TrEMBL record:
This is NUDIX domain-containing protein. Residues 4-120 form the Nudix hydrolase domain. It comes from the Bacteria.
Amino acid sequence: MVLLPPDDGRILAVRHNDTSETCPDQVTVIGRKLESSEPSTSAAREPYEETAVRVAAQDLEICQTVHYLGPDGARVIGVVFTAQQWHGEPCDAELDKHKAMLWIDPGNPPTDCHPYTREVLANFMAGRLYRNPTVTASGGGA
């Protein structure tokens, strides 16, 4: 995940289509799981793929790690970055996957924010460097 904060404190996010397998009709920040062969700096590619914004790998700063337990029992170690600078005008570059692109307040995310994203944003606001969230089968966070 890459948090793209402009100077006003908001974070760039997307609202997924209702056909999304993992987060239908929910708001998430930019990012996804990396493939097993990709280095973590490949996270710099994801903002461009989702929003046409370019982030150089050297402009990524780790802001937290998350040990996530998903509703299917899968465990994932996630790394969340902040982009110290980025270039371009954000637009929805994956219209087939997203309903909208929006700027959200990380301290007060939308009620339909995916539970994992909600946890990441809470960690970001509190300055926590590590968390261990669980998402239940019903989609709520624990």
